[in-house]
What we know:
73% helix
Amino acid sequence: MSEETKQTSAGMNRAKMYQLVLFPMNNGATNVYFVLVLSYVAQFGSSVLELGIFASLMVTVMRLADAVTDPIIGALMDRTSTRIGKFRPFMILGSAVMAVSVIALYVFLPFIPDSRKALRYIGFVVVYFIWVIGYTFQTSCTRAGQTVLTNDPNQRPMFTIFNTIGSLLGMGVMQLLIPTIKNMYNVYDEAGNLLISGYARPELYRIIAPVGIAVSVFLTVLAIIGIAGKDRPEYYGMGGSQEKVKVSEYVEIIRNNKPMQRLMVAGAGCKLALAIATNTTVLLALYGIMMGSYDSLYLPMMILGYACAVPFFLLSVRTSQKQGQKASLTRYVSVAFVCYIGVLILLLLCDHTSGSALTLSFPYNGGGAVNLYTLLFILCFGVGYGAYYATADMPIPMVADCSDYETYRSGKYIPGIMGTLFSLVDKLVSSLAQTLVALIFMACAGLSELPTDATPYSGGIKVAVNIMFCIIPLLAWAATLWAMRGYSLTGARMKEIQAVNARRKAAVAAGMPLEEAMEKWQTAEQVLEEHRREQSG
């Protein structure tokens, strides 16, 4: 009997190191599109397709409509069992759908002439909706697939750090690459003043679309290799034979799964903070309009944020392994909250006047010498960004805990619906972020379209940036901390749940009906007492 089989029969399902490393690349693959589409589609729709604020509004409307499809896709995943498993078919299909729809969106739609602008509106809506379906297919696998990857409380927190590495390979590469390519398409006048931003040029999107697709497909292949050995019926719930759950039953399931409810609030808070504070238009307004030098400030601040995130990733994993994922999420979100109060104060003091001591300054790409304001901003922003970036995806492995809790509570193995619930939260929040960006710029600065780094400074721009870069994330983190206060799945509690689930699974495998197993073992103490009797008898 192989070591893997022994672990499975004993109820402990541990992943091999290469599986822990590779499967989280699935989140990196979808985060490519988080940047490529969700960070740029409104800017593209407004500046290239000339759809104005309609593009931002439709991002939200389409995501709201997708609320209907999410539970359907979750139900389909829970009922799926193919020759290549439960999750891999959705990863493959999702990747293919997103690739085709992004090419249609960024490459083909700009060729529709101005005289037929109605077709642009229709095409934008249809293509974007198709992309959302593909995004749901693949993102839900990241959440749901963890349940088969490992149930070891010491291994599961490691998903966060490898998930972040995947995100850096996907999201990070695109965040660094796109602004660099964008500068190649900026248009300047004879005096060197920016006339047309590269973000308003269709040529930019024809380059970044295939580059992003290539990166995403590569990461998807790695993720498929990572989960291949675990995407088998013996790792599904109580051993592969599970009751089929109707879509109509999901509302009742979620109503009774209190930890999942609170995790959805926490996940929404973390995602909203990340989506707003890293939004392309917000960063353009902050570094390009408020501080006057997007090209000299964006790249150093982005590198700073990623560098500061590294120690927090290591700390968060260690805290999760010792005290549970709830303790880790609460601790480091609190650090981000405190630091961003400092960032807000610094932004309120910011003076956009050229050469002012109250603005960021780097000796890079035409910038000035580093001043005290810059050092204070580096400290507050670096620590705050590092802490919240390390926790932004932490709710993802916690979804697996909630799914295991549901198996413990009801005997149902429904990772698909758990995954799509979080996919829904992800999409609603990220689309809400884009609409908030457009509406706040409209309300505070009186803009009819999204600003670029060529937009002149105004007091309204400063107010809008302060709201979006600091105040909204602070409110989102406050909601996260509130939700975690009542979250019951601590590290100790999850060890008890895994022990009970393991004993029930062994009994079901030996022929005991599931209902009888659930009635017989309800606490870890009962499992331990039986083990003592077996040892003494």
